[in-house]
Write a structure and sequence with these properties.
The chain is an alpha/beta fold. It folds into 2 domains: about 1-260, Nitrilase/N-carbamoyl-D-aminoacid amidohydrolase; about 280-535, Rossmann fold (3-Layer(aba) Sandwich). Helix content is about 35%, strand content about 15%. The protein is built from 20 helices and 20 strands. The strands form 4 sheets. It has an 8-stranded mixed sheet, with helices on one face. Strands 8-9-10-11-14-15 form a 6-stranded mixed sheet, with helices on one face. A 4-stranded parallel sheet has the order 19-18-17-20, with helices on both faces. Helix 6 (about 310-330) packs across helix 8 (about 375-380) and helix 6 (about 310-330) packs across helix 13. The longest helix is centred in the C-terminal third of the chain and has 22 residues, at about 440-465. It binds nicotinic acid adenine dinucleotide, adenosine-5'-triphosphate and glutamine. Nicotinic acid adenine dinucleotide binds near residues 447, 482, 483 and 487.
Length: about 625
């Protein structure tokens, strides 16, 4: 039998888009002679509909939309994910359609409730072994723990998380011997290196349960924060039959394979491992796709970036250039532009974001500079950067910013903000009747500089109907090393999910492996906020602690969830090169800054989930805004 999985780039409650992708996948599958097709989890509504799953109307509308898919299934069997609400409870199901008929709904038995997933808030798990009936417009269909048969092949379901449970409880353990094929529609978030876990799960599952296993994941940045890699895997008895290229820019990515169910295949002696994932490359592809989808789904016309020439903002600038490079390489320029939508003349009926909304001018091809390549011209239309210097800014960072922006093709503007800073300082000095000095008002004088950069950069974003990128990384989010409404200003925060150490390493990789020679300068700069007088030689690590230690403490405290005492003990054991007293001071500082700054993490712009954890309270890590701040625990260190 020819079986297929299709990864789909869906959007919550975008019925038109979702149905179009489902229809396209079915059409492509039929053209390829596919007989059974698996589509991703909840692909009809979108996986990220959140509390809408608790309404009556959304699941009802999903059933109505399902009726439109039925006629497309003449001559093919298709699994389509959608919510079904019965007696005020919503179930996460996969409908099986064939020849225009609904054969039934397989329901998810184990709900994802860790990390970025909060499914028990929306869904009720289906009890193993039970079935019920769905009534809709005069028809009755079975729903629950079901198996099906198509062309003599018996199949059952695991829906995403179902497969992540132990072998003696997951649905597959009751399907063993009863089915030839297990179908898994998934919405499994991207995280660096995670593909290896999924690969093992599918390959081992097919061996342990002596079956063929068909897995299809969602694709793209579905709803803002979480990116799906669109992985399709087919395995039989521990042998890999098909695996696709991940993180495609296409709307529909279909993979099929022929399986001779009648011909026996021995169980694999061992699972052939995948080559180790290249995390720098993975992150690059995920971030590019994340930005691409965010831009087009937000119906915006480009990005604006306050480019300091430092590591974080340079990373974001390269991210936009990579969006163009990778998108054009896969789709071709015309399709890239069509899908992005940012290059069409502005329509008056387009919903305007924020105060601006004026039509974006076609970027001029850089009259005084060198001839731009086709990709640089696209970057020029999509990215405007501005350097906003003060007396505390160095020539190094200005040159770094300018060289990078020019090399990418981005529009580069620059001005100074000293007048605005002194204007505000003067007003407060007059109001309070005293001078503000670095001795008495250090942080306030730093913050006003970061804040004064915000209005102009927002203005630039508004007038061009662009998204303002904010450059926060996870390390500074952990300790609140940022000025609220200053350098946190923006509506999308692409790198807030990764730590500063990784940011620095990635930039070195991008310089050598991707050929961004203009990163050479930033790769030789010490991270610095440049908010204190230059003579002070401010660096992030002098203000805080070495980033490697900060990241380690953060991981031990909030990924491994150790108590402060245990974090310190672990650090002392693994860092003999550091003095124990110094480490104690760093651990104290970390927890104090962490607790004091939860409110800042609550106010960060939406960020992508890219690493296996993040500190965003909306997606991964919840912590009280007001707390005892680990007072007792730190006193006992
Ligand atoms: N629990 C709570 N809930 C709500 N608000 C709370 C609060 N605790 C304090 N606050 C408020 O927070 C304010 C202080 O926060 P905020 O004004 O943001 O500033 P703050 O956290 O005091 O200082 C900002 C830090 O970030 C560093 N920085 C700034 C800019 C850029 C960079 C860089 O790396 O480039 C680094 C800077 O060196 C400094 O260490 C207080 O005035 C108070 O109003
Ligand atoms: N001179 C500047 N011109 C424009 N934007 C600036 C300037 N200084 C700071 N910013 C903005 O504030 C953000 C925060 O600064 P921060 O120092 O944390 O990051 P960075 O300068 O990009 O990297 P690094 O910390 O490695 O120096 C910058 O990413 C940038 O968006
Ligand atoms: N949608 C799901 O059930 C996802 C859960 C699963 N643990 C994953 O991360 O892939």
């Amino acid at each position: 039998m020819r079986i297929a999985g299709a990864a789909l780039n869906q959007t919550p409650i975008d019925w038109k888009n979702n149905l179009a992708n489902i229809s396209a996948a079915i059409e492509q599958a039929k053209e390829a002679g596919v007989e059974l097709l698996c589509l991703p989890e909840l692909c009809l509504t979108g996986y990220g509909c959140e509390d809408l799953f608790l309404s009556d109307w959304l699941p009802l509308e999903a059933l109505r939309q399902l009726q439109k898919i039925r006629p497309l299934t003449e001559g093919i069997c298709v699994a389509v994910g959608l919510p079904v609400r019965l007696a005020h409870r919503t179930y996460n199901t996969a409908a099986v359609l064939r020849d225009g008929q609904v054969l039934g709904f397989a329901a998810k038995q184990f709900l994802a409730n860790d990390g970025v997933h909060y499914e028990p808030r929306f869904f009720v798990p289906w009890p193993a072994g039970e079935t019920t009936t769905v009534e809709f417009e005069g028809e009755n269909w079975p729903l629950g723990d079901l198996t099906f048969e198509h062309l003599g092949v018996r199949f059952g379901f695991e829906i995403c998380e179902d497969a992540w449970r132990p072998d003696d409880v997951r649905p597959a353990c009751r399907l063993r011997g009863k089915v030839d094929l297990i179908v898994n529609p998934s919405a499994s978030h991207f995280a660096m290196s995670k593909t290896d876990l999924r690969y093992q799960l599918v390959l081992k599952g097919s061996r342990t349960f002596a079956c063929t296993y068909l897995y299809a994941n969602l694709l793209g940045n579905e709803a803002g924060r979480i990116i799906y890699d669109g992985e399709i895997l087919v395995a039989r008895n521990g042998h890999l039959l098909r695996r696709n290229q991940l993180l495609s820019f296409k709307a529909v990515d279909l993979e099929w394979v022929d399986v001779g169910f009648a011909e026996p295949v021995p169980l694999a002696d061992f699972i052939v491992p995948l080559p180790a994932p290249d995390e720098y490359k993975e992150l690059n592809q995920a971030m590019s796709l994340g930005l691409f989808d965010y831009l087009r789904k937000a119906r915006s016309r480009g990005f604006v970036l306050s480019l300091s020439g430092g590591a974080d903002s340079c990373f974001c600038a390269v991210g936009v250039a990579e969006l163009v490079r990778l998108g054009v390489a896969e789709l071709g320029e015309a399709e890239f532009k069509r899908r992005l939508g940012a290059f069409e003349p502005a329509k008056t009926e387009v919903v305007q974001t924020g105060a601006g909304g004026a039509a974006k001018q076609e970027a001029q091809p850089n009259p005084e500079g060198p001839q731009l390549t086709a990709n640089q011209q696209l970057v020029r239309q999509l990215l405007t950067c501005a350097y906003q210097g003060t007396v505390n800014s160095s020539d190094d960072t200005f040159t770094s910013a300018k060289e990078l922006a020019d090399s990418l093709g981005a529009r580069f503007l620059h001005w100074t903000i000293d007048d605005e800073v002194s204007g505000y300082v003067h007003k407060i000095e007059q109001g309070l009747g005293r001078e503000l000095t670095w001795q008495t008002d250090d942080l306030a004088l730093q913050n006003i500089q970061a804040r004064v950069r915000a209005p102009a950069i927002w203005l630039l974003a508004n007038v061009q109907n662009c998204l303002l990128i904010t450059t926060s990384n996870r390390s500074e989010a952990s300790v609140g090393y940022c000025t609220m409404d200053g350098d946190t200003a923006g509506s999308i925060s692409p790198i807030a999910g990764v730590d500063k150490d990784f940011v620095k390493k990635w930039l070195r990789w991008a310089e050598t492996e991707l050929g961004y020679a203009a990163l050479h300068r930033v790769n030789n700069l010490q991270p610095t906020a440049e908010l204190r007088p230059l003579a002070d030689k401010q660096t992030d690590e002098r203000d805080l602690m070495p980033y490697a230690l900060l990241n380690r403490i953060e991981r031990l405290a909030f990924y491994d969830r150790l108590a402060p005492q245990a974090v310190l003990a672990q650090l002392v054991a693994e860092s003999p090169e550091h003095d124990a007293e110094q480490l104690r001071a760093y651990v104290r500082r970390f927890y104090q800054l962490w607790s004091r700054n939860q409110w800042k993490r609550e106010r960060y712009a939406p960020s992508f989930h890219l690493d296996d954890y993040n500190v965003d309270p909306r997606s991964w890590l919840r912590f009280p805004i007001l707390s005892g701040g680990f007072g007792q625990e730190l006193a006992g260190l």
